[in-house]
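Trying the structure run again after the queue cleared.
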Amino acid sequence: MWIYLLQGIGFGFAAASQPGPFQTYLISQSLTRGWRRTLPAALAPLVSDAPIITVCLLVLSQVPLWMQRALYIVGGLFILYLAYGAYLSWRDFSASAAESEATGKQSVLKAAMMNALSPGPYIFWTLVTGPVLIQGWREAPLNGVGFLAGFYVAMVSSLVAIILVFGLASKLGPKVNRAMVGISAIALFAFGLFQLWKGIYASV
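Done. Tokens:
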């Protein structure tokens, strides 16, 4: 089991540390709402990934091209919506009102929706971690459980670290904080356009 536990930890750190729209969203929320209100969003993969893993392992031995395109397009549109929200936060930035915008439950649900609409988790669990999980589970169910435990402990811990770092960075002052919110809005906008481009024009 230890081999699969270590593999899960390694894949979990890798998944959390790769720059992407989900990580950018967490950074944006940390800057505008504070790390305390954003912290529950680190648990979003625990909410969204169960059906993703089930679909990938039981149905999608190979992700169909049309589904990849659809996921890119829908995910891209949702990321653009989040980018617009980040832009509004930048435009109407108020340091005193930043932390009163949303509850922890809303933060988790919005982050989980974003993760579920992104093609990344589907491709990741189909082509990368899915085969490892299946192999471990066939050898012994405890191996599969160890792999999942290592993966999500490492991933959630890494996401918590990202939220804390940028939440504390927001204390550098309103000008720096507002500038970082603007950068996160631009990054989300770029990710959204890229996913739309992948869905419409790319062969994936």
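The chain has one domain: 2-200. Worth checking whether this holds up in the mutant runs.
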